[in-house]
Amino acid sequence: MRIRKRLVWMAIAAMLYAAPAIAQERHITDAAAMQKAIAQRKAADDNNREAVMTVLRRPDVKQLAERMGLSLERAETALASLPGDKLAELADPARAVSADLAGGDTKIVISLTVLLLLLILIVLLVK
Q1: What does the alpha-carbon distance between residue 125 and residue 87 come to, in Å, rounded to a whole number?
Q2: Tens digit of pLDDT for each residue in 31-80?
Q3: Is residue 24 part of a domain?
């Protein structure tokens, strides 16, 4: 019986001393790489958010939103809380609209339709 107790205590002691050594194993990535990836993701999200905000701040978009009874302030507030994947979905058409309108495109009907869809998507995603 005494031998069994000693073996149990020795096994417990071995596990307690081995735990810190196991906890110090090397991680898959180092902290610098993780920080860099986080910074890149934040920069991409900021760029996407700014692309959508640029379109929402256009005077023609404000007029369209007023005619439809949509609140741009609510859309801008909602935009601040959207996750990265949803921002990326909204940023692509927003960039296309900005490029079309900045290039002097006269087919504004299609662009306004995309703007309207952006506004509706932002409002729906927040609800």
Answers
A1: 11
A2: 888 899 899 999 999 998 898 888 888 887 788 778 878 788 888 888 88
A3: no
Q: Are 72 and 62 in contact (CB under 8 A)?
A: yes
Give the total number of structural domains in the chain.
Answer: 1
Residues 21 and 19: their CA atoms lie apart, in Å, by 5
Does any domain span residue 2? no
Q: Which domain holds residue 75?
A: 37-126
How far is the C-alpha of 97 from the C-alpha of 103, rounded, in Å?
A: 10
- Residue 65 falls within a domain, yes or no? yes
- The two tokens of residue 103 are 């290039």
**CA torsion through residues 35, 36, 41, 45, sign:** positive
Tell me how many degrees the CA angle 83-64-91 measures, rounded to the nearest 5: 25
Task: With CA atoms as reference, report the closest residue to 79 among 41, 105, 58, 53.
Answer: 53
CA–CA distance, 56 with 30 (Å, rounded to integer): 39
